[in-house]
Specification:
Layout lengths: L3 H23 L19 E5 L4 H17 L3 E3 L12 E8 L2 H13 L7 E5 L4 E3 L3 E5 L10 H12 L5 E10 L9 H6 L8 H10 L4 E5 L3 E2 H12 L4 H13 L21 H9 L7 H31 L9 H6 L2 H14 L3 H15 L5 H18 L2 E5 L2 H7 L3 E6 L5 H12 L6 E5 L7 H7 L2 E4 L7 H16 L4 E2 L18 H12 L5 E10 L5 H8 L9 H7 L9 E6 L3 E2 H7 L18 H20 L2 E2 L1 H9 L6 E3 H17 L7 E2 L4 H10 L3 E4 L6 E4 L4 H10 L1 H17 L1 E3 H19 L8 H14 L4 E4 L2 E3 L6 H10 L3 H17 L6 H18 L10 H13 L3 E3 L6 E3 L2 H7 L7 H11 L3 H22 L1
Parallel strand pairs: 2-8, 3-6, 3-7, 10-16, 11-14, 11-15, 12-13, 12-14, 18-20
Antiparallel strand pairs: 1-4, 4-5, 7-8, 7-9, 15-16, 15-17, 19-22, 21-22, 23-25, 24-25, 26-27
Helix pairs in contact: 1-8, 2-3, 4-10, 12-13, 12-18, 13-18, 18-19, 22-23, 24-25, 24-27, 25-26, 28-29, 28-30, 28-31, 29-34, 32-33, 32-35, 32-36, 33-34, 33-37
């Protein structure tokens, strides 16, 4: 136990220092120096001296540094700490394990990055500090288990004794390789860092073998006095004297007018003066010996050393991942776990399969999905991908990664990115690895488990799951238990919540399976709290572009194969622009559990088949939607997506170059003045640079003309550009909707505009995962209208009436271009509603409505539109029908599955006339008019096609 007199002395001295700091440090009077002995300091008080005192030691250090500098080329992870040049704070670097190579490496790094030196002695005679080096080793191989670092204890003692002394601790992690497992061979044990303390032999091998695969990270500095103070305050929570001091300090810490005596602790005896109380606290009684003070210092040092050890352990785990020394037994541990034993017994009872056969089947499932981590494969991928990205892309831009680093040590990280391309698997893992965090285990579809490619991906921490396993209870149990094992071992995980790659560039509706398994695991057992990291991935060109367009037009999806992989390599010499990764605002599972009143550890720990209750199921659905919304919040409006939005809004996808530049500048200004979200990134390229960039990537071309050059889409690239336009459509969709309402009607009252948008907004929100809440929609609309008025796109006519600019003005042209993007969505809605109204209530199922709308959309796109296949994407019609059902506009008969509805369907369709032209509405009604024979023929043809597709999958 730390003596009270020591705690109170430190707390009181700290309070006094806080009160006097502004006067002493902020004074311009050179003579106004604190008169106390420990405050009579200047810039000469801190001296540095060589750590080695003999010529032999100095020569050894110099030669060792030169050899290490040649043999080791460390990679710096994270950000460097920043210190002011005039800062006189003493700096000490904290390492966990003692080793000569680590000491020299840190010294070289501090020299290279202009940080306070590590292997230079630190001397402060005023505060009785005389250290041979600025490195603190938390434990030494020859030291006892509980022995406190002598240097740390001396510094803490000085901090307790001298209130004005400033010492900072900089924890440092050094990794010789980044393998998280203990491998079998002696050579591999000597090669890479794992969870064992490094021996001298291993350090020598590390220098020779892993010198080019070494990583150093300087963590944020910690003020030693603050650390000591917090520890003393925690120890003294129940002590009335210390509590009084702490409360007084908290209230007056930044008050320059508070007298030093006012910060001394108070007692119940009001007759005694503060001076008397101070004397009793600061001067120990004869019973408080120096031995007690030394023991107290040791106790404080021991506590702080433990905290530093835990901190560095967490940082190490975030970089290496969990200890995988038992990986080779993982499958057996899964199969013999109580949860899988129960699942095997259930399989035996329900299917009649013998226990032995069920056990073999479960083990085959486990072998089918479990990863086979290999650090050599990781290193190969590292080098290969570094080369590949330079061949494919101009650069990889990463945004907001610091928020992930801050959470990695204390949370179970679940990365939930959007899914644009097969490159996503590699790109996200590469970025995370290069920035010093552990590579997540990626849930990959078993369609990628093909010869050559499959084992490589499995070695790079991919685990394979079947695309569909509904009804297979044993497979589900094994997958759930494997997910639970990864989560309880604090393994970062990545899965694509959309379930598959988006063929249109929009986000797909979330698949809740993996998300529900994550929640299920947390409700069985809590280790670290789960946090979801929504991640936006945006490309400027995409390898699978041509394949996506073909699939949207009805071409069968090609299965992944080695031949397909070799075909892709033919594109390596092509230029694909930049790639953008943006890490969205984290979503904490505990916040959702509180919101939905779902208690922690509310499911049996030894069962995988316990269903989630209604509250937990609703929570999973809400998390899924929030993840999609946060992915869109983190969108990057890159030059190609912005260019696509402008050019495809022009008639025949061509417009004057000057008008193109003006429209790009307009969109940039709108997005910056009223950001979609604070996480949204807008390209800083100028409009001219954006046009030139699109030409460079061969997506648009400049047609010279005497009256002004014309920008048009390169032949057969319009469908591909629609993919990139859809990446950012959500950023501008409400502005487009408002522009369309004003442009179509010429003038419209604000309240009428609000009513129409409020009626149709839920469908746009469902399609594009907009984050604006319905109850605050009116304020949002007013802000966006004011933004459009400020840009002269809408004219305020008075009496709440909005109008268009002059018909031949550039502002009017800009308004009509801005109004175009929303039209395709509204056309799909009207066509679906027209089909429902024409066929009548109780005649079609939801699946039949989606299938028919898909066919009608294909026909309409070819006959009247620009043959852009995303217009008739099946998932968009599914989203609209689901939104109609969720809002209770349509109901599903529980027995027949047919949809029933009332006249409200027509009320929704009625609003289309405010946006769509009369000609377009007539076309849509004509296309949607099908007789019974046509309906039956179409449904039969679709059914046969689905059966053939299912047969190929089987």
């Amino acid at each position: 136990m730390i003596p009270s007199f020591l705690k109170n002395k430190f707390l009181t001295d700290r309070a006094a220092k806080s009160s006097s700091t502004n006067t002493a440090d902020g004074s311009d009077d050179v003579g106004g120096v604190d008169s106390r002995a420990d405050g009579n300091l200047d810039s000469q008080r801190v001296l540095v001296k060589p750590a080695a005192k003999t010529p032999i030691n100095q020569l050894y250090r110099k030669l060792s540094g030169q050899i290490l500098d040649v043999a080791v080329k460390p990679k710096l992870l994270g950000e460097l700490p920043e210190f002011a040049a005039e800062d006189q704070t003493l700096t000490f670097y904290v390492l966990q394990d003692y080793s000569r190579s680590n000491s020299i490496l840190i010294d070289l790094q501090t020299q290279e990055h202009k940080l306070p030196p590590a292997l230079v002695g630190v001397k402060d005679s005023v505060h009785q500090i005389d250290e041979s080096a600025a490195i603190i080793f938390l434990h030494h191989p020859k030291a006892k288990q509980d022995q406190v670092s002598p240097r740390l204890m001396r510094l803490i003692s000085a901090a307790l004794q001298y209130p004005q002394l400033q010492i900072r601790l900089v924890p440092v992690s050094i990794l010789w390789g980044r393998a998280p497992e203990k491998e079998d061979s002696l050579f591999k044990l000597l090669m890479t860092d794992n969870w064992q303390d490094p021996s001298i032999t291993k350090q020598l091998f590390n220098i020779g073998v892993m010198g080019r695969d070494t990583f150093v990270q300087f963590h944020p500095s910690q003020d030693l006095r603050t650390v000591v103070y917090h520890n003393l305050c925690e120890e003294e929570e129940d002590n009335s004297v210390a509590t009084s001091v702490t409360d007084e300090l908290s209230a007056n810490l930044h008050n320059d007018d508070v007298d030093q005596e006012d910060l001394l602790p108070k007692t119940a005896d009001s007759d005694r003066s503060n001076a008397q109380i101070s004397s009793e606290i600061l001067q120990p009684s004869p019973m408080n010996s120096l031995v007690a003070a030394a023991d107290a210092n040791r106790e404080v040092a021991h506590t702080i050393q433990q905290q530093l050890n835990v901190y560095l352990d967490k940082q190490r785990a975030s970089m290496l991942g969990p200890d995988l020394s038992d990986k080779r037994n993982l499958v057996d541990k899964l199969i013999y776990s109580p949860a899988i034993k129960h699942a095997i017994e259930t399989e035996f009872k329900q299917t009649g399969t013998s226990v032995r056969e069920a056990h073999i089947l479960a083990k085959s499932y486990a072998n089918e999905m479990v990863n086979d981590y290999s650090y050599p494969i990781i290193r190969v991928f590292d080098r290969f991908l570094t080369w590949l990205w330079t061949q494919l892309y101009d650069g990889v831009e990463v945004h907001h990664f610091e928020r992930v680093r801050e959470l990695a040590a204390d949370y179970e990280i679940i990365y939930v990115p959007c899914h644009r391309s097969h490159v996503d698997y590699l790109l996200l893992s590469y970025v995370i690895y290069k920035r010093g965090l552990s590579i997540p285990y990626v849930a990959a579809g078993d369609n990628l488990d093909v010869p050559v490619l499959g084992p490589l991906l499995r070695g790079a921490v991919a685990f394979f799951i079947r695309r569909s396993f509904r009804g297979n209870a044993l497979y589900t149990a094994v997958l759930r238990e494997y997910m639970h094992t990864l989560i309880t071992r604090n393994t970062p995980i990545e899965y694509f919540i959309e379930g598959g790659r988006s063929r249109t560039g929009r986000l797909l509706p979330p698949k809740m399976g993996m998300l529900a398994m994550t929640v299920h695991s947390q409700l069985r057992k809590t280790n670290k709290p789960v946090v979801f990291i929504p991640t936006y991935i945006g490309y400027e060109r995409i390898m699978e572009g041509g394949t996506y367009i073909g699939e949207l037009k009805g071409k069968p999806k090609e299965s992944e194969s080695l031949i397909g992989l070799l075909k892709v390599t033919r594109k390596i010499e092509r230029v694909f622009g930049n790639v953008h990764l943006s890490f969205g605002t984290p979503l904490h599972l505990t916040d959702f559990m509180q919101k939905f009143d779902v208690p922690a550890e509310s499911l049996p720990a030894d069962r995988t088949d316990t269903p989630l209750d209604a509250k937990a199921t609703a929570m999973v659905d809400n998390i899924g939607v929030k993840i999609m919304q946060h992915i869109n919040k983190a969108a990057v409006v890159n030059p190609i997506s912005l260019l696509s939005l402008v050019v495809l809004s022009a008639p025949k996808a061509a417009l004057d170059e000057s008008i193109c530049r003006e429209q790009i500048a307009l969109y940039q200004s709108i997005a910056r003045q009223q950001p979609y979200d604070e996480d949204t990134i807008i390209t800083d390229m100028s409009p001219q640079q954006i046009v030139d960039y699109g030409i460079k990537l061969k997506l648009i071309e400049r047609i010279p003309h005497i009256l002004g050059d014309i920008i048009q889409v390169v032949d057969r690239q319009a469908a591909l550009l629609s993919y990139f336009r859809n990446n950012i459509l959500h950023v501008f969709i409400l502005q487009s909707f408002l522009a369309a309402l004003v442009a179509r009607n010429g003038r419209i009252k604000r309240h009428r505009l609000d009513d129409i948008v409020a009626q149709l907004y839920p469908f746009l929100q469902s399609e594009l995962f907009l984050h604006y809440s319905a109850h605050g929609l009116k304020d949002t609309l007013n802000d966006k209208i004011d933004n459009l008025i400020a840009h002269d796109l809408i004219v305020e006519l008075g009496d709440g009436i909005l109008g268009i600019p002059e018909a031949n003005s550039s502002s009017y042209q800009q308004l009509t271009v801005l109004a175009t993007p929303v039209e395709h969505s509204l056309e799909r809605y009207f066509m679906t509603l027209a089909l429902l109204a024409q066929q009548g209530s109780g005649n079609l199922t939801a699946e039949e409505v989606v299938d028919l709308c898909h066919l009608l959309g294909q026909r309409l796109s070819v006959l009247y539109a620009d043959d852009i296949p995303d217009f008739f994407d099946r998932s968009l019609f599914t989203s609209f029908v689901n939104a109609l059902s969720r809002l209770d506009y349509i109901q599903t008969d529980s027995e027949t599955g047919v949809l029933t509805f009332d006249e409200r369907i027509n009320n929704i369709a009625h609003h289309a006339k405010y946006v769509l032209s009369t000609d377009m509405m007539q076309i849509l009604q004509q296309v949607a008019s099908l007789d019974e024979e046509e309906i039956a023929h179409a449904i039969t043809a679709i059914s046969n096609k689905k059966q053939r597709k299912f047969g190929r999958k089987r």
